[in-house]
Amino acid sequence: MTIAIDQGRTKHASRDVTAWDRLKVNRNWLGFWFMLPAMAFLILFLAYPLGLGIWISFTDARIGRVGNFIGLENYEWLWDDSIFWLSVFNTLLYTIAASVFKFAIGLYLALLLNENMPFKAILRALVLIPFIVPTVLSALAFWWIFDAQFSIISWSLKQMGVISQNINFLGDVYWARFSVIFVNIWRGIPFVAITLLAGLQTVSPSLYEAATIDGATRWQMFRHITYPLLTPIIAVVMTFSVLFTFTDFQLIWAMTRGGPVNATHLMATLSYQRAIIGGVLGEGSAISNAMIPFLLAAIMISWFGLQRRKWQQGESND
Amino acid sequence: MRLPSLRAVGTEAKLLLIGIPVLIWTMLPLYHMFLFSISPKDSAFSGKLWPDHPTLHNFEVVLKQQHYYLSHFWLQLWNSLLIAVATGVFTLLIATFAAFAISRLRVKCGRLVMNLALFTYFIPAAFLAVPMYRTMGSYGLLNSQWALTLAMVTIATPYSIWVLKQSSDQLPVELDEAAIMDGASPMQLFWLVYIPLMAPALVAVGTYALLLAWNEYLYAFLLLSKDTSVTLPVGLGNFLAADDSPWELLMTTGLIYALPPAAIYYTFKRYMVSGLTAGAVKS
Asked: Does the ipTM exceed 0.85?
């Protein structure tokens, strides 16, 4: 009798424990609590501003004033705005020129650093420097290199007798574009090189050994082993590189503020200038939103790049 | 035997030939800067490779805040540090919780959250600048350092979740199972099993967020305006507004500003490259 009661009690108690435990231990419930901070942040500070950005572009909002809905007026206005189209052209030029060079030089450096050579560790560390130096600082350093009067480039060229007058790097339309693209390449190479290097190191050396035995040339090895295996990481790196170059703000703002005569205005800097400095939030947001199609295109291209590689390897798409 | 060694010499020469331009290419702008910082004001433009009278006077001026533009140097440095550390800590907490929930607790729609996180990483900071300004305004946070910290945490979090999730997927599930068999609660699992094993990736992510905040210019510029609350890069940017900028001081301040991230980066480099590229290689 007592045993039975005890049994009943313990059963009851243990059921209590499991119920409480389940509440505490329940994976989904706990998972929800663990996800909560991230969700809250992303909704409050990412999703809300994103939605707001799209909404503002359809209003005539200014700083300190809530705008009224005006439909597509901002976009129509931009369509006829030659400075906006100039900024689109600049952005495309900036992105394409810088990305091509960053990729070519970065890949070359990665292949070099992957080989055995003296001072490898030091070289690797050095290559990273432009990436670590804060953007504003590299802009300042290059300000001097491109200075109209004291430029070290002009000085050296003059010493060599190539030119007789200083080059006005940041004051001339074409030189200014060249200069900002140059600095962007300088800053961007380490990211491409180091990430591709990490990818190269995952390629098994036995593949190269087998290819060497089969008498493959270096170019054949690159074309048929390195390149296919590196494709997915190239896609990822170049997508990021293109995205960040396309939306660059800091470098341009610190170096030229969009000048001379808007020659280096990118869409991001123009948006900032119109929205925050000019106070016309609606128009600034519309310029930002005009970046979306380009960004989507870049993402799609890289996504299909990844897909193709899976198909080549015969993996199932998960 | 002779042929390969000859070839090796050839490659070595070739590598040196490439190594030297790389060295000049990366170091020239920074060396130029360093040169400025140790030159007296009037001889900075002489075009020499080493100044005739190297001096630490510029550093003294900066550290003692003896110039109009530098009157808040220490405060701005402190602001930078505070915001960077706060961003690092918050990002780490939020991202670790989320990665644990997705990877180990296997919450429903974890995959969806991961894809969203990856997607949000594609949203560039400059794209959000204008609405972020408005959002912080409506939360009443403009000109508060919280605004910058929260914005930086938001920007750093998606990528951090992604990286942490990738590396926690590499931990064997058997560890979890063994711990649960021994009666560990999920909280114990988190603190006693997961966190210690994830330490290298956590270092990488924390450093990433910290450096991101330390280097940030656009949002610092956008969300803060008082001279006493801005971070050092904004302070540096204000130098440029003047026509007669004291260049040697600007460069000196810049060098001081660049030292902490370089030191942190090279200390944790081992973790950084492997940790942050893990996601990219695996995908």
From this structure: no
